[in-house]
Every structure is written in C-alpha cells, then in structure tokens.
Amino acid sequence: MSLKKTFLFCLVLIPLSFLIGLFFYGRMLSNMVETRFSGTRWQIPSRVYSDTMLLFPGQRLQLPDFYEKLRRLHYRKVEGFPKYKGEMRISDSVLDIYLYDAAFRNRKREGFPLRIRFLENQVESIEQVDSRIILPVFELEPEELMLFFGPERERRRLVSIQHVPDHLIKAVMAIEDNRFYQHHGISFMGILRAMWINIRHGKMKQGASTITQQLAKNYFLSSQKTISRKLKEALIALILEVKFSKQEILEIYFNEIYLGQRGSESINGIGEASFFYFGKPTDELTPAESAVIAGLIKGPNLYSPYTHKEACLKRRNMVLQAMHKNHWIGQDELDMLLKEPIQTTGYNAHPRWAPYFADYLYQQLKDLYSREDLSSLGLSIYTTLDTQAQKAAESALSKGLERLENRKPSLHRDSPEKKLQGAVIVMQPKTGNILAMVGGRNYSISQFNRISQARRQAGSAFKPFVFLAALDQFTPASILSNESKVYSTEKGEEWIPENFEPVSEETSVSMRTALSKSHNRATVDLAMKVGLDQIIRQARAFHFSTPLEPYPSLALGSFEMIPLELVRAYCIFAADGFQPYPLSLKNITDASGTALNRKHMEIERTTSPEKAFIISSMLRSAVVDGTGKAIGSYGISFPAAGKTGTTSNFRDAWFIGYTPDIITLVWVGFDNGDPIYFTGSQAALPIWAELMNSIPHQLSGSWFAMPQGVVKRKICPESGLLPIPFVCPEEKEEFFLSGNIPEEYCSVHKVRMLDQLMKGLRSIVP
C-alpha cells in the first residue's frame, strides 16, 4: 500500500474509530443515566414529628412557652395584621396568625387567618377571621423533631416544578444560565463569552456550565477540574437533554443543588432551602427571597445570609439586576426589590429533641422498617411527643437534681458518669401516648434510659397494688393492725417492718389512712390477710416483667421494677381499669402522604372501673393529707392523686401522680445505689409539681366521676362500720363497692354505750 493510501486510510479509520468509541461510550453513559433516574433519585430522610396541639376555649396555657412553640414552627412576628402565611401579630390579649398549609396524619389543611383571644392565661375564643366562624377546637400543626439521615446527611424536601414560582426560575436562569431554553445542554455562546472574559482578566473569572451541565456534574461526577471530566459532563448534559424535557431537568436540578449547611447536615434543594432561610414553602417565596436563593448556588457558604450578610445582599442585588437585564423585571420593580432588606427566619442549630424518646421510638419503628428504609424513603413519622411537656420535664428534672445537690453537698460527684440521676415520663393514661420521656440527666454522657431499661426497687410506690388486691375482701374503711409484728423472711429469718415515722398511739388504722400515710406495718398486715399469692397473681396481669416472690417484704416494694412498667400499671387507676400499651408512634405516611399500615396495640381491662375509682380516691387522700400533701405548697390547686416511694437506705425516691388527663412518674437516685438521704416527697415530688405547673394545657382540672358500682356511705372512722346515731362522736363519708357495703353498726361505740349504760344502772340500783 502506498504512503498516500495509508495516510488516507488512517485519515478515515482514526475519526471513524473515535466516533465508534464515542458512540459506545455515549451508550454506556446513556445507560448509566437511565439506570440512575429510573429508580429512586434521592435518599430522602424520614422526618419525625411531634404530636399536634389542640387549642380550645377555657384551656390554660403558659403563653411564653406557646409563643416559643410558634417560633419553632417558623411563624414570624409582624406589626400589622398578618397578610401572608407564616406571619403573626401578638398583643396582650389577642393573637392574629396566618396559618401555614399543613399536613397532618391523615389530612391536609390550607392555611387561613386565625384570631385567638386570651383572658389572662386562658383561651377565651378561637375565630376563623375570613368567615367569622367561632371554632370549638383548633389543631396546631406538629413540630419537626429529627430526621433519619443516610450517610450523606442531606436534608431535602422534594418540590414539583409546578410549585416553583416563575420568579425563582427566572432568578436562577438569570444568574446561572439565561439561555437555558435555547440550548441543548451546552451553550457555545456561553463558552465563547466565558473564554473572552477570562482572557481579558488573565484568569478564570467566569465558567460556562449550563444548568444541565451543573446537574450532570452534581449527579454523576466529582468536582475535579480536568478536561476529561468536562468532556464527560458535556456528553451527559447532551444525553439529559435528549431523554428529559426542560421542565424535568429544571425539577431535578432544583431538588438536587446544594444550598447551605446546618451543622453537620447539608441543605439540598430549593424546598429545604426555602424553609431553612425563610421559614416558608417554595411557592410562597417573594421575588427578593428567590433572588437570595438563586445567588447561593455559586457559593452557599460564601453568600449565606446567616454568616455573610453583606456578601449575600450584594449577590442578591446582582441576581435582581441580571433579571432586569434579561427583561424579566421592570425598572420600577428592580428599584423596589433592591431596597428590601433580607429577613431570614433565623438560624437555629437543630437541637436533639428528646433523645431518650427518640431511641425508644426507634425500638418501636425497627419492627416495621429497616434503618435503610428510614433514611431513604422520605416517610413522615408522627409521634405522641408534646414538645412543651418534654421541655418542661427536662427543665424540672435538671433544676430538681441541682437543688438536691445544693441542699446536701455530699450528693455531688465530680465524675459526670457518677452524678445523681433522675428520670421522668409523662403519659396519657387512657391512650398510652408518651408525651415526654427523660431517661437520664445528660444523654451525651449516658444513653442508658432509666425509664425503659433500669430496674429499681419500687418501695411504697408498689403499695396501691396490694390495696387493690384487697378490695374484694376489705373496704377503705376496714381497720388494719398497725402494731409491730414479726414475720419470717425467705431465708427463715425474723423480719419486723417499721413505719417510716413512728405513729404515736395508733395501733390500728383504716385502709385509707394506711395507704395515704404509707404505714408499712398496716400494709404488711393487709398483705398477709389478702394472701401474697393473690397479690402476685394480680400483679402478673399488669405485665410486670420482674419475677415476684411470696415474701412479706413484697408488700413494701422490695422487688425491682422497670419504671415504664410501673407507670403503665398505674394507668389502670386513671383509665377506669384499662391498661394501655406505652406508645411513641401515632402514624406513618409515605412521601406522597398516604397512610401506611402500622401495628395496633390493644388496650386491655385489668381491673374494674369501680376498684380503679376507689384506689384513686385513696391516692387522692395521699396528696391531700398524706405523704404527698406537700404538693399544695408548690401551688398545685387542681385535683390529683399520687403516691410517694422511698426504698431502704434512701436508695430510690419516687413520686407517681396523675389526673384524669395525664400521669407522671419521677424517679431520683444514683445508678450505683448510693443513698440520696431524701424521701420521695422531698426529692421526686417537687420535680413532679414543677413539671405539672408548666403544662397547664394538658390539664382539664376535672376529677373522676363516680361509677355506678360505687356507693357513698357514712361510717364511724374508729370502727369502719355504720355509725350509731347520737352515739358515735364522729361520722365520715366513705366510698364502697356496691357489693361490699358494711351492714353492721359500730361495734366500738356500741360496747362503750353499753358500758356507760351499765354504769348508769349500777349507780341507780343499790
């Protein structure tokens, strides 16, 4: 073959080989694009939400806490009447608020103006402003608590292109790619313009990447600046333009772009950015706010309105001027927009809401979803948590433990791991919904959840279950022995229970007094009469996981219990005999808002409403004139029931108190069992009282209605029997089961009356 033919052959073969190679390489890239976009395009973290908040006339609120909650929900104060969603005006007695659109567990709500009138700290009325309709109840949207992140820790809210305002599209195009609708992925005019500008300045002053090329780089490539990467970027951009419409490319781009940082979490997509910077959904952004977000694309951390306000303002104005240059806004509008200040929603480092609760929630969730699903499917997880109750519980526990350490310096420990500990749980007794959970003093130091994982002696907090087991044979008026007695222990040794405080001259007490004043001797006397096996059989029905043995000390709470199981068992008294399953999860919806299946936990009846009412009445006595009467000194004026608990050597201090609305358990102690030298009424009760005073919105102030199977009768308190008219010096009303009412008259004063009569007769008859 001649040299000329060889040259011609190579001239044809080399370009042909290149084209063939380019074709197959393009096919490979095309398959990669097809595969990438045919499945899930992003790993969307599942969002965990608090419970909603119900507002109704007559409800008491801590107004500062309520307004703080609105701020966390991204509502912002304005001077005049709110005109846009997310605005609120606060005065002394009126809140005007323009609600956001909101998604609830099973429905969506369009935002509307609302007016709430207050009379001091009570809701007086709730009015829908536009229609002038007075609402009997209103549901405030839930707060975001946390996200289940994937390894990239990307925050992202997907937005449809139909919900992106035109001025935001124009703002992005003006500063990033003003010929987006004219090119096919690569802008040759842009390349020439960038080359000319860079040559003039003698350095890289301007790039030439189109929006499609940026998407190709962000989605498929690294940020490495090489010729091969730029060529690959151009090829992928061309493929994207062939396979997708301009609107689809914009939608993917808007949901992909990186727009800032929130701690270790990256802000990706305009949907997340609009909430992060302006506290509103994308379709409610103003033109000036859209210009801020468009300006962030070039350098989110260089132009952030939170960290570089001046640079952000200059960059925003550059975007607005580019929009004007492209004839997308007029001169008058430009002049007006340039004068607008940048008003962000305010940066808040995302707090770790209720970490012990979050761990407990995950234990319930993992039976339904894998960790990978939770970090990628974009689920909305609606929980039972009341954020105000949670904050109040955390604050009350922290202050209470510090108070104890200050009162008794010997309780102070230098090592954070050995400090005095405590735990709090707040529940709705009728539903089992957990409103607040604090499993320890500091989650960052110890993740051990003392509510759901610890096993501690219950002490006197177990006594109500002894008295409940006795109601078939005894009544609250029954007289028990309060004398010192000797019992045999499990080891065959002698055991003599002692009352915490010596009771002068009270060798016998009523059942009501024994429980309300927590007399140990009388409680053991009752337990032995009822039968320890009977008490254990009943306790098993309440789902205590700790094995119980028939020893006399059982009556005084000598066996260890899990606090969560103990508060769950107490729910039967506040829930008319029903025992719920402790719930942290209410509902789950997928990314489209469709409710998903979840497990339904049964609420079971474990005692009768009549017995539950009688125990509640006895525990009401405990906080009126018994071991829990100190609650009155803390300003607790609503009716409540409760029981203190103090274990041997002061190792554990308890208070469990409840109303018909909520039940709260507080435990204080050292993890290693060191004594704290305080009783339940001294250590745990003040924490309970401070917490309850901080959450009036959860309290109706009502008390339990007496069931039909309970009757009220007058008795003589000395005998517990019917009083003899004009003979018994004192009469007292008491509750009884309808099938267990005393029928005999007072034997004590009957004998005394006969003695007096005989003495009188002897004095008359010689």
| Full CATH superfamily name of the largest domain | DD-peptidase/beta-lactamase superfamily
Output mean pLDDT.
Answer: 86
- Total number of strands: 32
Q: What is the CATH topology of the largest domain?
A: Beta-lactamase
CATH architecture of the largest domain: 3-Layer(aba) Sandwich
CATH class categorisation of the largest domain: Alpha Beta
The rounded distance between the terminal residues' Cα atoms is 165 Å
Helix percentage: 25-40%
Strand content: 15-25%
Q: Shape, please?
A: elongated
Mind explaining what this structure looks like?
With 766 residues, the chain is α+β, with helices and mostly antiparallel strands. It has 6 domains: 1-39; 50-147, Penicillin-binding protein 1b fold; 154-339, Penicillin binding protein transpeptidase fold (Orthogonal Bundle); 352-458 and 559-707, Beta-lactamase, CATH 3.40.710; 461-558, Beta-lactamase (3-Layer(aba) Sandwich); 710-764, no CATH class. It contains 23 helices and 32 strands. The strands form 11 sheets. A 6-stranded mixed β-sheet has the order 3-4-5-8-9-10, with no helix packed on it. The chain has a 5-stranded antiparallel β-sheet with strand order 18-17-30-29-28, with helices on both faces. A hairpin with a 5-residue loop joins β21 and β22 (494-495). The termini are far apart.
Give a nutshell description of this structure.
The protein has 766 residues and is an alpha+beta fold. The chain starts with a helix and ends with a helix.
